[in-house]
Amino acid sequence: MPYPSMPRAITVFSLAIGLMTAGVMAADLTAQEPPPLSSGAKFVAQTGQQLYQTSCQGCHMADGKGARGVGLYPALANNRNLAVSEFLIFVIMNGKSGMPGFRDYMSDEQIANVANHVRSSFGNNHGPDVTAGFVKDFSSR
């Protein structure tokens, strides 16, 4: 049985080393953890925009226009119901239809922040701002 030529053996060896190095580098890239969405059972994000992006955008979409598919994800854009802050806070806290409630995962301040973001984005211009104190008082009713 003939032995492979030296240049071919060097080429194969070099390719093997290159592939192993690439594999180690790729494994190192995937080992880097993305920033956490939550700390235990609570969301880490604080701003309304961050909370919307991590908690709401998957269903209500980046533009707030909602979606239709396997389910109906209501539009938040130009939504008159959001003018009633109690309605929005209730839905964020307790969920509605297929939407989960976030009462156990967000602080009163986070609920107020995401509510204010939704009420002032996507063509909505509803005020006044919701406060953490208002959310706390509302949740104790």
Automatic annotation (TrEMBL):
Coiled-coil ranges per UniProt: none
GO molecular function: electron transfer activity; heme binding; iron ion binding
Oxidoreductase among keywords: no
Domain Cytochrome c: 43-122
Keywords from the UniProt entry: Electron transport, Heme, Iron, Metal-binding, Signal, Transport
Record has RNA-binding as a keyword: no
InterPro entries recorded: Cyt_c-like_dom, Cyt_c-like_dom_sf, Cyt_C_IC, Cytochrome_c-type_DH
Residues annotated as signal peptide: 1-26
Pfam families given in the database record: Cytochrome_CBB3
Record's protein name: Cytochrome c, class I
Lineage: Bacteria, Pseudomonadati, Pseudomonadota, Betaproteobacteria, Burkholderiales
